[in-house]
C-alpha cells in the first residue's frame, strides 16, 4: 500500500523521488518513539522503516526546565537532510525500493542526527 500523498512529504535523493511520513508512539516514561516510513513515489515497492529515534515532549517537561539550560538532545529535530542521509544509508545496506516484498528496517539512533 502506498503512502498517502496528502499526509506524506516528498523528498528527492539522487534521481529518485520518495515520500516519507513521521509519527510518534508514546511510552509511559514520557518518551516517544519516532516512527518514520519512507517509500519510493515511482515504484511503490517495499517500505523503509526507521527505528530507534526517541524524543520527549518539551511541553510536558516545560515546568521542570524553568530556569535551567535545556538539553536539546532530549528534543531532537528531524530534517529532510536527515531523512536523505537515512535513505542513502539504507540503499548502501541493500534496500531495494523498486521491488515489492518485506519492509526494510534500518536501526538508527539519536546520535545519527548529528550528520
What this model shows, in words?
The chain is of the alpha+beta class and 115 residues long. Helices cover 18% and strands 32% of the residues. It has 2 helices and 6 strands, in the order βββββααβ. The chain has helices at residues 58-65, 80-92; strands spanning 9-13, 16-26, 31-40, 48-51, 54-56, 104-107. Strands 1, 2, 3, 4, 5 and 6 form a 6-stranded mixed β-sheet that branches. Strand 3 (31-40) and strand 4 (48-51) form a beta hairpin. The two termini are 31 Å apart. The mean pLDDT is 83.
How would you summarize the topology of this molecule?
Elements: E1 9-13, E2 16-26, E3 31-40, E4 48-51, E5 54-56, H1 58-65, H2 80-92, E6 104-107
**N-C termini distance:** 31 Å
How many strands, what sense, and barrel or not for the largest sheet?
Answer: 6 strands, mixed
- What are the segments in which pLDDT stays under 50 over at least 5 consecutive residues? none
What series of H and E elements makes up the topology?
Answer: EEEEEHHE
Q: What best-fitting shape do the alpha-carbon axes yield?
A: globular
Helicity, as a percent range: 10-25%
Please provide the count of β strands: 6
Number of helices: 2
Radius of gyration: 16 Å
**Structural class by sheet pairing and helices:** alpha+beta
How large is the share of residues in beta strands?
A: 25-35%
Q: Which terms summarize this structure?
A:
single chain; 115 residues; alpha+beta; six-stranded mixed sheet; 18% helix; globular
Amino acid at each position: 500500500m502506498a503512502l498517502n500523498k496528502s499526509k506524506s512529504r516528498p523528498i528527492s535523493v539522487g534521481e529518485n523521488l520518495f515520500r516519507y511520513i513521521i509519527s510518534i508512539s508514546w511510552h509511559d516514561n514520557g518518551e516517544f518513539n519516532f516512527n518514520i516510513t519512507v517509500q519510493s513515489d515511482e515504484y511503490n515497492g517495499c517500505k523503509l522503516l526507521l527505528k530507534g529515534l526517541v524524543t520527549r515532549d518539551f511541553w510536558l517537561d516545560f515546568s521542570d526546565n524553568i530556569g535551567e539550560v535545556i538539553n536539546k538532545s532530549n528534543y531532537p529535530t528531524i530534517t529532510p537532510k536527515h531523512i536523505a542521509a537515512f535513505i542513502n544509508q539504507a540503499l548502501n545496506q541493500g534496500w531495494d525500493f523498486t521491488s515489492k516484498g518485506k519492509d526494510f528496517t534500518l536501526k538508527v539512533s539519536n546520535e545519527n542526527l548529528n550528520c
